[in-house]
Design a protein that fits this description.
Layout (H helix, E strand, L loop, with lengths): L2 H5 L32 H18 L1 H7 L6 E3 L9 E7 L13 E15 L3 E4 L18 E2 L1 E7 L5 E7 H14 L21 E3 L1
Parallel strand pairs: 4-8
Antiparallel strand pairs: 1-2, 2-3, 3-6, 4-5, 6-7
Protein name: Peptide deformylase
Family: Belongs to the polypeptide deformylase family.
Enzyme class: hydrolase
Length: 204
Protein backbone atom coordinates (compact mmCIF):
# COMPACT_ATOMS: atom_id res chain seq x y z
CA UNK A 1 0.00 0.00 0.00
CA UNK A 2 1.42 3.38 -0.99
CA UNK A 3 1.77 6.22 1.51
CA UNK A 4 -1.02 8.08 -0.28
CA UNK A 5 -3.34 5.04 -0.19
CA UNK A 6 -2.80 4.80 3.56
CA UNK A 7 -3.46 8.50 4.17
CA UNK A 8 -6.64 8.68 2.06
CA UNK A 9 -8.30 5.70 3.76
CA UNK A 10 -11.70 6.81 5.06
CA UNK A 11 -10.79 5.85 8.63
CA UNK A 12 -7.49 7.75 8.68
CA UNK A 13 -6.94 11.28 9.96
CA UNK A 14 -3.54 12.82 9.32
CA UNK A 15 -1.49 13.12 12.51
CA UNK A 16 2.05 14.10 13.46
CA UNK A 17 3.30 10.55 12.80
CA UNK A 18 2.41 11.01 9.11
CA UNK A 19 4.59 14.11 8.80
CA UNK A 20 8.20 13.47 7.85
CA UNK A 21 10.98 15.50 9.46
CA UNK A 22 14.03 17.32 8.14
CA UNK A 23 16.69 14.93 6.88
CA UNK A 24 14.15 12.91 4.89
CA UNK A 25 15.14 13.17 1.19
CA UNK A 26 11.53 13.77 0.05
CA UNK A 27 11.72 17.23 1.65
CA UNK A 28 14.62 18.09 -0.66
CA UNK A 29 13.10 16.73 -3.86
CA UNK A 30 11.40 18.75 -6.57
CA UNK A 31 7.84 17.40 -6.39
CA UNK A 32 6.00 16.18 -9.48
CA UNK A 33 3.08 18.07 -10.99
CA UNK A 34 -0.29 16.39 -10.58
CA UNK A 35 -2.13 15.49 -13.76
CA UNK A 36 -5.44 17.12 -14.64
CA UNK A 37 -8.25 16.28 -14.43
CA UNK A 38 -7.38 15.29 -10.88
CA UNK A 39 -7.67 11.71 -9.72
CA UNK A 40 -10.11 10.99 -6.87
CA UNK A 41 -7.06 10.01 -4.83
CA UNK A 42 -5.46 13.47 -5.23
CA UNK A 43 -8.74 15.24 -4.43
CA UNK A 44 -9.19 13.20 -1.24
CA UNK A 45 -5.56 13.84 -0.28
CA UNK A 46 -6.15 17.60 -0.54
CA UNK A 47 -9.29 17.33 1.60
CA UNK A 48 -7.41 15.29 4.22
CA UNK A 49 -4.64 17.89 4.31
CA UNK A 50 -7.18 20.67 4.89
CA UNK A 51 -8.87 18.63 7.62
CA UNK A 52 -5.51 18.22 9.36
CA UNK A 53 -5.06 22.01 9.42
CA UNK A 54 -8.57 22.48 10.84
CA UNK A 55 -7.92 19.82 13.50
CA UNK A 56 -4.55 21.39 14.35
CA UNK A 57 -6.21 24.79 14.93
CA UNK A 58 -9.01 23.34 17.06
CA UNK A 59 -7.74 23.30 20.67
CA UNK A 60 -9.83 20.22 21.61
CA UNK A 61 -8.91 18.15 18.54
CA UNK A 62 -5.28 19.27 18.62
CA UNK A 63 -4.89 18.12 22.22
CA UNK A 64 -6.76 14.88 21.63
CA UNK A 65 -4.66 14.03 18.55
CA UNK A 66 -1.39 15.54 19.81
CA UNK A 67 -1.11 17.98 16.89
CA UNK A 68 1.07 21.04 16.48
CA UNK A 69 -0.89 23.99 15.13
CA UNK A 70 -0.35 24.69 11.46
CA UNK A 71 -1.54 27.14 8.79
CA UNK A 72 -0.13 25.22 5.85
CA UNK A 73 0.80 21.71 4.76
CA UNK A 74 2.45 20.44 1.59
CA UNK A 75 2.15 16.90 0.22
CA UNK A 76 5.94 16.30 0.41
CA UNK A 77 5.66 16.69 4.19
CA UNK A 78 3.55 13.53 4.10
CA UNK A 79 6.27 11.78 2.07
CA UNK A 80 4.17 12.25 -1.09
CA UNK A 81 6.23 14.05 -3.72
CA UNK A 82 3.39 15.88 -5.47
CA UNK A 83 2.73 19.58 -6.06
CA UNK A 84 -0.23 19.89 -3.69
CA UNK A 85 -0.50 22.38 -0.80
CA UNK A 86 -3.23 23.27 1.67
CA UNK A 87 -3.38 26.65 3.42
CA UNK A 88 -5.72 27.70 6.21
CA UNK A 89 -5.08 31.16 7.67
CA UNK A 90 -7.55 32.23 10.36
CA UNK A 91 -8.68 35.82 10.74
CA UNK A 92 -8.08 37.21 14.22
CA UNK A 93 -10.59 39.00 16.40
CA UNK A 94 -10.58 42.78 16.37
CA UNK A 95 -9.10 45.01 19.07
CA UNK A 96 -12.36 44.78 21.03
CA UNK A 97 -12.36 41.00 20.99
CA UNK A 98 -15.15 40.61 18.44
CA UNK A 99 -14.90 37.52 16.24
CA UNK A 100 -14.08 38.14 12.57
CA UNK A 101 -16.88 38.21 9.97
CA UNK A 102 -15.03 35.60 7.94
CA UNK A 103 -13.32 32.79 9.86
CA UNK A 104 -10.41 32.55 7.44
CA UNK A 105 -8.49 35.05 5.34
CA UNK A 106 -7.23 32.20 3.18
CA UNK A 107 -8.63 28.67 2.86
CA UNK A 108 -7.59 26.72 -0.21
CA UNK A 109 -6.13 23.47 -1.49
CA UNK A 110 -3.86 24.37 -4.39
CA UNK A 111 -2.75 21.94 -7.09
CA UNK A 112 0.40 22.76 -9.10
CA UNK A 113 0.71 26.22 -7.50
CA UNK A 114 3.42 28.57 -8.71
CA UNK A 115 4.49 32.15 -8.12
CA UNK A 116 4.12 33.94 -11.47
CA UNK A 117 5.15 37.43 -10.32
CA UNK A 118 6.31 39.11 -7.15
CA UNK A 119 7.22 42.45 -5.62
CA UNK A 120 10.75 43.77 -5.53
CA UNK A 121 10.19 44.48 -1.83
CA UNK A 122 11.18 41.74 0.61
CA UNK A 123 9.34 40.82 3.81
CA UNK A 124 9.84 38.58 6.83
CA UNK A 125 7.84 37.62 9.90
CA UNK A 126 9.07 39.38 13.05
CA UNK A 127 8.92 36.13 15.01
CA UNK A 128 10.54 34.03 12.31
CA UNK A 129 8.95 30.89 10.86
CA UNK A 130 8.35 27.38 12.08
CA UNK A 131 7.56 24.18 10.23
CA UNK A 132 5.73 20.97 11.10
CA UNK A 133 8.69 19.07 9.63
CA UNK A 134 11.23 20.88 11.84
CA UNK A 135 11.25 19.98 15.54
CA UNK A 136 13.56 22.79 16.59
CA UNK A 137 13.49 26.56 16.76
CA UNK A 138 15.53 28.24 14.02
CA UNK A 139 15.95 31.95 14.70
CA UNK A 140 16.32 34.64 12.09
CA UNK A 141 14.37 36.51 9.44
CA UNK A 142 13.13 34.26 6.64
CA UNK A 143 13.40 36.64 3.69
CA UNK A 144 10.51 36.34 1.22
CA UNK A 145 8.62 38.51 -1.28
CA UNK A 146 6.23 41.02 0.32
CA UNK A 147 3.63 40.43 -2.43
CA UNK A 148 3.13 37.56 -4.83
CA UNK A 149 0.78 36.54 -7.61
CA UNK A 150 0.10 32.81 -7.53
CA UNK A 151 -1.49 30.58 -10.14
CA UNK A 152 -2.97 27.21 -9.18
CA UNK A 153 -5.73 24.74 -9.95
CA UNK A 154 -8.54 23.87 -7.53
CA UNK A 155 -10.00 20.38 -7.04
CA UNK A 156 -12.47 20.95 -9.89
CA UNK A 157 -9.55 21.65 -12.21
CA UNK A 158 -10.39 25.35 -12.47
CA UNK A 159 -7.40 27.66 -12.84
CA UNK A 160 -7.06 30.58 -10.43
CA UNK A 161 -4.75 33.56 -10.20
CA UNK A 162 -4.62 35.34 -6.85
CA UNK A 163 -2.64 38.24 -5.45
CA UNK A 164 -1.42 37.87 -1.89
CA UNK A 165 0.39 40.19 0.49
CA UNK A 166 1.58 40.15 4.09
CA UNK A 167 1.13 37.02 6.16
CA UNK A 168 -0.91 35.15 3.53
CA UNK A 169 1.84 35.71 0.97
CA UNK A 170 4.43 34.37 3.42
CA UNK A 171 2.38 31.22 4.20
CA UNK A 172 1.85 30.35 0.54
CA UNK A 173 5.54 30.96 -0.31
CA UNK A 174 6.56 28.66 2.59
CA UNK A 175 4.36 25.86 1.21
CA UNK A 176 5.41 26.37 -2.42
CA UNK A 177 9.03 26.14 -1.21
CA UNK A 178 8.20 22.66 0.13
CA UNK A 179 7.18 21.38 -3.30
CA UNK A 180 10.47 22.80 -4.65
CA UNK A 181 12.62 21.08 -2.03
CA UNK A 182 13.39 24.29 -0.14
CA UNK A 183 13.26 24.57 3.67
CA UNK A 184 12.43 27.89 5.36
CA UNK A 185 15.84 28.19 7.01
CA UNK A 186 17.52 28.14 3.58
CA UNK A 187 16.23 31.72 3.30
CA UNK A 188 17.84 32.97 6.54
CA UNK A 189 21.09 34.90 6.18
CA UNK A 190 23.49 32.48 7.90
CA UNK A 191 26.13 35.13 8.57
CA UNK A 192 23.64 37.64 10.00
CA UNK A 193 20.23 36.01 10.73
CA UNK A 194 18.52 39.26 11.71
CA UNK A 195 19.96 41.46 8.95
CA UNK A 196 17.37 43.82 7.45
CA UNK A 197 17.91 44.84 3.86
CA UNK A 198 16.81 48.24 2.62
CA UNK A 199 13.05 48.54 2.35
CA UNK A 200 12.42 45.11 3.90
CA UNK A 201 9.02 44.80 5.55
CA UNK A 202 8.93 43.18 9.00
CA UNK A 203 5.48 41.70 9.61
CA UNK A 204 4.40 41.59 13.26
Amino acid sequence: MSTQDKIIKASHQINMADIIREGNPTLRANAKEVTLPLSDSDIILGEKMMQFLKNSQDPVMAEKMGLRGGVGLAAPQLNISKRIIAVLVPNIEDSEGNPPKEAYSLQEVMYNPKVVSHSVQDAALADGEGCLSVDRVVEGYVVRHARVTVEYFDKEGQKHKIRLKGYNAIVVQHEIDHINGIMFYDRINQASPFAITEGMLIIE
